[in-house]
Automatic annotation (TrEMBL):
NCBIfam families: glgX_debranch (TIGR02100). The keyword Hydrolase applies. Signal peptide: none annotated. Its EC number is 3.2.1.196. It comes from the Bacteria. This is Glycogen debranching protein GlgX. It holds the Pfam family Alpha-amylase. GO terms for molecular function: limit dextrin alpha-1,6-maltotetraose-hydrolase activity. Keywords: Glycosidase, Hydrolase. Belongs to the glycosyl hydrolase 13 family.
Length: 677
């Protein structure tokens, strides 16, 4: 007698959907649906545990969706697609997981079940958020206090030692470089390298097995999914949100001359953007560009995002080359694109943080500040301004030239309101950063004038040629205490500016302990000690950097604690007051702002809870005598030094100064005071 389920093939949901209510090891029928406009007839191949392969035609078709019933599916069942007249296996774009067998990629059915123990997304307010961008493997691979079998894995990231470190530092969210199942590009394989960063996605519904423990990999895709969920649950229990860096702008299929895995065979003209001659439009620099002008592509991305939120409890996403996802049928960016509309109205994605990398390589590809309400943008204006003022300008000044003015610095510290105000998204629309995975680390930014990417085997042609870096007189490692002291001070200035700025700060993992990549500013293919964090005993300089970073994060949280209870508050000045003074303690004039010879200013920030901080910036080569301005929040007008990037700043911490008095500020340094009254 036929099971009733077998008579109810459905065109949705896409992928393989097993009959509910049956144990994962008990064979049960499953519905299979795939959007495949490029073929008339499609077949599902099932690879059984005993090695048998069976074929199951998808005899139903509706609006280019092919669907049918597949019998005897269990957890771990492997399957693939092909045209009816071909044996070439095609991966289901909705595969719950991917398994490689004899050089072929098969989808693998995963029975998602997990005891979340009442875990929910944390919903940390943006005003309290401090992001830590990290790589799953690189963060723990060399950690001596994590068991060796867990190093470099999801379980290693969830280890108490790692959680304690993140909590001590004070960050509130871990943003993971891509963990979707990815593969290596052909040119990397030829060179004996790998795509360490993972920006070459093969499957958008499963964690990459390469970051799972050996035990989980042997147990199969369901065990890998469980290990990933345990990581998220542990991070949540520690109060840490989890964001994923996701890559929907291109797929692992590369250019038209590269291997076909899935989308190209199912619907090349639908999934990829093409020009009038039928050639791929390459606005991503990877060989292909996903076509978000088509509703089925939007649906596929939305289904993937919902899957990660529903099944894995993810708190947020950072979208690689996000402009591509907002391009219409004429390849123009539209902040009201159907994809953005879909994200905004979706109940599953409500409250999930959406962060855009707001550029791609296509026409009109720079869109910082132009993403829709609810989104935050990576703020390259902040990155470039801070590097100019503290790093590149320092190099110019040391060579006898002049640096830039204070006006651009103040705009960036104020949340780049000249760029973001037009979108009316509030003070936390920008995600501020100085360094990220792509580019120099903070230490290398102050240690190298030039990139050193020879180990990538691309003849040092890859990576940015101009990074606004400065080596402080010596290229690369130096034992000269004066060189090292100046580098440390510059690094501290950058970290200080990041953590007192308006916006959401993002720290690149390891910058708080001065991690180096030996001058490589494009370490995407370096799955080795160049990219992995070194957890050996900290040097004196590293300890200073860590303690300053930790202290500034805590200071930031204290200052912002009572501000902006409403996330949609756009008039920051009414709640979080910022006043700017020159070296004489007077309100900044137009001449002060734009005179490149004047590189000293004071920023007074006041929050709702009678908390006022004074930040003094001295970007000049000379020691400056500043006059401390009057603090309206405190009758006594006394200030206590809470942080300084100067050579002897730690020894002077706690010193008290009075408004109207003079204070000496070291060249190229930052001093932060709290108004005590």
């Amino acid at each position: 007698m036929r099971h009733a389920f077998l008579d109810r093939a459905r065109p949705y949901p896409f992928g393989l959907t097993r009959q509910a209510g049956v144990g994962p090891t008990i064979p049960a029928p499953a519905n299979m649906a795939v959007y495949a406009p490029a073929g008339e007839k499609w077949v599902v191949h099932v690879l059984h545990p005993d090695g048998r392969r069976t074929r199951h035609p998808l005899n139903n078709r509706q609006y280019d969706v092919h669907f049918g019933i597949i019998p005897d599916v269990v957890d771990g069942t492997r399957y693939a697609l092909s045209r009816a007249d071909s044996e070439e296996l095609i991966l289901d774009p909705y595969a719950p997981a991917v398994v490689e067998s004899n050089g072929e990629y098969w989808g693998s059915y995963v029975e998602h079940s997990f005891d979340w123990r009442r875990d929910t997304r944390l919903g940390t307010p943006k005003r309290k958020t401090v992001i830590y961008e990290a790589h799953v493997k690189g963060l723990t691979k060399l950690h001596p206090d994590i068991p060796e079998r867990l190093r470099g894995t999801y379980a290693g990231l969830a280890h108490p030692v790692m959680l304690d470190y993140l909590l001590e530092l004070g960050v509130t969210a871990v943003q993971l470089l891509p963990v979707h199942h990815s593969i290596d590009e052909p040119h990397l394989v030829e060179n004996g390298l790998t795509n360490y960063w993972g920006y070459n996605t093969l499957n958008y519904f499963s964690p990459d097995p390469g970051y799972a423990t050996e035990a989980a990999r042997k147990a199969g895709p369901s065990a890998i999914a469980v290990e990933f969920k345990e990581m998220v649950r542990s991070l949540h229990a520690a109060g840490l949100e989890v964001y994923l860096d996701v890559v929907y702008n291109h797929t692992a299929e590369g250019g038209q001359d590269q291997e076909t895995y899935s989308w190209r065979a199912l619907g090349d003209d639908v999934y990829y953007v093409k020009d009038q001659d039928g050639n791929y439009v390459n606005s991503t620099g990877t060989g292909n560009t996903v076509n978000f002008a088509h509703p089925r592509v939007v649906q596929w991305a939305m289904d993937s995002l919902r899957h990660w939120v529903s099944e894995f409890h993810i708190d947020g996403f950072r979208f690689d080359l996000a402009v591509t996802m907002g391009r219409d049928s004429k390849h123009r960016f539209n902040p009201r694109h159907p994809f953005f509309v879909a994200v905004t109205q979706d109940p599953v994605l409500a409250g999930v943080k959406m962060i855009a990398e707001p550029w791609d390589l296509g026409p009109g590809g720079w869109q910082t500040g132009n993403f829709p309400p609810g989104w935050s943008d990576w703020n390259d204006h902040f990155r470039d301004t801070m590097r100019d003022f503290w790093v590149a300008d320092r190099g110019r000044i040391d060579s006898g030239a002049t640096g830039g003015d204070l006006g651009r610095l103040a705009q960036a510290l104020s949340g780049s309101n000249d760029i973001f105000n037009a979108s009316f998204r509030g003070p936390f629309a920008p995600v501020n950063f100085v360094t990220a995975h792509d580019g120099f680390t903070l230490k290398d930014l102050v240690s190298y004038n030039y990139k050193h990417n020879e180990l990538n085997k691309e003849h040092n042609r890859d990576g940015a040629d101009y990074s606004r870096s400065y080596n402080h007189g010596v290229e690369g490692p130096s034992e000269d205490p004066d060189v090292w002291g100046q580098r440390l001070k510059t690094a501290k200035n950058l970290m200080s500016a990041l953590l007192i700025s308006s916006g959401i700060p993002m720290i690149c993992a390891g910058d708080e302990v001065l991690r180096t990549q030996r001058g490589n500013n494009n370490a995407y293919s370096q799955d080795n000690e160049i990219s992995w964090l070194d957890w050996s005993a900290r040097t004196e300089q590293q300890e200073q950097m860590f303690q300053l970073t930790r202290h500034l994060i805590q200071l930031r949280k204290t200052l912002l604690e009572g501000t902006l209870q409403l996330e949609d508050q756009t008039e920051l000045h009414k709640i979080f007051n910022q006043r700017w003074f020159n070296a004489h303690g007077e309100e900044m004039s137009q001449e002060d702002w734009w005179d490149t010879q004047r590189r000293t200013m004071q920023l007074m920030m006041s929050g709702e809870l009678d908390s006022t901080v004074l930040v003094v910036f001295n970007g000049s080569p000379d020691r400056q005598l500043i006059t401390v301005p009057v603090c309206a929040m405190a009758p006594g007008n006394s200030y206590r030094l809470v942080a300084s990037t100067s050579k002897h700043g730690d020894q002077r911490r706690g010193a008290v100064i009075t408004a109207g008095k003079r204070e000496s500020i070291e060249p190229f340094s930052t001093a932060i005071f709290r108004c005590e009254g």
